[in-house]
Design a protein that fits this description.
Elements (H helix, E strand, L loop, with lengths): L2 H19 L12 E10 L2 H17 L4 E3 L6 E8 L9 H17 L8 E10 L3 E7 L4 H12 L14 E7 L6 H10 L4 E5 L1 E9 L4 E9 L2
Antiparallel strand pairs: 1-3, 1-8, 2-6, 4-5, 4-7, 5-6, 8-9
């Protein structure tokens, strides 16, 4: 059992509980807007996407006007930011990526088939003030170990200070106040099913619309 991640998720639940119940949530002003970023991602398996679609369908029945739901084709796990869309870069986002692109791509592709694949399980729905997320565990913290290995081996810009430290996919963001936060919370707490998938690939994408609803695949590598 991955106690580090369990503690992280319990902390998120405690931190956001009261604000969610009092409808003190953050509306997503960036939804659908143009962005410039480059990110490493893990695509969800079809089984996980099926489960997530069903979750979204049930939530939309509870809150038909309040939620922004990530469309199925774009559902993913953020592995790590390379050029973070909301970060500050001396050369700007495009020029920062252009200056490092050749070196980064070569070193990224050199990692193909260098690391083992592993399973993860989505186990906890967490209502936060900015989004409802579905959090996942990997038993031996493989994703975090892989993130650290990539950080050591790839030429990330020094201005990219945002780093991912847990595993999740976003179920929904908010466009208005919820009609009934308590009913949503009770639904999320009652949902106990666990859905698993294998992590077999890491994909590098250039994003052009938030939240990764338009992007260009730059490269992908396989895990063994």
């Amino acid at each position: 059992m991955n106690q580090r991640l369990i503690d992280v998720y319990d902390g998120f639940t405690l931190k956001h509980h009261e604000k969610f119940l009092t409808n003190d949530i953050e509306f997503d002003a960036m939804w659908g807007k143009p962005i410039k970023g480059v990110t490493l991602q893990i695509d969800l398996s079809e089984d996980v996407r099926d489960a997530l679609y069903n979750l979204q369908d049930e939530l939309s029945k509870l809150e038909p006007e309040a939620l922004l739901l990530t469309p199925r084709p774009f559902q993913h796990i953020s592995f790590n930011q390379v050029v973070y869309w909301s970060g500050n870069y001396k050369l700007g986002h495009d020029q920062t990526w252009a200056a490092m692109k050749k070196d980064f791509l070569a070193k990224f592709q050199n990692l193909d088939n260098r690391f083992p694949s592993f399973p993860i399980s989505f186990i906890k729905l967490i209502p936060m003030t900015s989004a409802i997320i579905w959090a996942a565990l990997d038993e031996h913290d493989k994703i975090q170990t892989l993130r650290e290995a990539f950080k050591a081996k790839l030429p990330f810009p020094t201005e990219t200070t945002k780093g991912n430290t847990f595993i999740h996919t976003t179920v929904a963001r908010y466009k208005t106040k919820l009609r009934n936060p308590l009913r949503v919370l009770q639904f999320l707490e009652a949902y106990k099913a666990s859905t698993s998938m294998m992590v077999n690939e890491i994909i590098l994408r250039k994003e052009s619309q938030y939240p990764t609803m338009q992007s260009t695949e730059l490269a992908r590598i396989q895990l063994q």
